[in-house]
Amino acid sequence: MGKITPETLKLMKRKGEKISSITSYDYSTARIVDEAGIDFILVGDSAAMVMLGYPTTHAINMTEMKIFTSAVARGVKNALIVGDLPFGSYQASIEEGVKNACELIKCGANAVKIEGGSDYIVELTERLTTQGIPVMSHLGFTPQFLNALGGYKVQAKGLEQAEFILKQALKLQQAGAFAVVMEMISEEAGKYFTEKLDIPVIGIGAGRYTDGQILVIDDILGKYKDFTPKFSKRYADLNSVIGDAVQKYIDEVKTKKFPTEEHIFAMKEEEKEKLKNASYINC
Prior knowledge:
This protein has 283 residues and is an alpha/beta fold. 44% of the residues lie in helices and 13% in strands. The chain has helices at 6-15, 27-36, 47-50, 62-75, 94-106, 119-130, 146-149, 159-175, 187-196, 217-220, 238-254, 269-277; strands at residues 19-23, 40-43, 80-84, 111-115, 135-140, 179-183, 201-204, 212-215. The protein has an eight-stranded parallel barrel with strand order 1-2-3-4-5-6-7-8, surrounded by seven helices. Helix 5 (94-106) packs across helix 6. The longest helix is centred in the middle third of the chain and has 17 residues, at 159-175. The termini are far apart.
């Protein structure tokens, strides 16, 4: 399989092929999910919570996002890499948004993701796409707008709000966005948007009928237990696996079962004799 591009995802939608996506934030994890055959990896600002322990995504900055993006890029051969523009990296001006998007591309991202659908975001999307930077949009519940939305609330539960979000999505599509993430919306709205848009709709809590799905990797692996969203599914319990492994390690260190002979490096016999007869070491 060759390198996946934004055009690949659009072709998958036209063929009716489901798109799989996951977040990743480090080299080793990115390499594993890439080799498993994931279609695209989002280096998400969710790293703020699952990697850095911040209470929301607001606290993460460009320096941190660049570190995570670079690490993921070094582990990926085939998957499309999408870098998240964090809160505060594009709100001040179009120029600053372009500059920071370029920084993520330099770090190895193949595209950037931007939350929101205001006229300002549409303008930024158009500027980026005309300058060769692919943009993935993000509508519905947008975590960077948490304070303005009044908390974690499901979006597009009625026709009026669904029509409003669709209008935003159509403008972003016209501006050049190659896909749109729809988060925490009613399943009916997810199906409606998928049918009305030409670009792929990637759902995260958007029901069964979107063109693809994306989840936070720490959620599906059962590693991050501070909060588990309803729309996520746990496929493993790494929290327990890691905890059990560390407890066994602690026990073996305390009881002198580790290390054993297979884990050590030994001197040659003649050097052992010299060491045994040495009265001191001349430093």
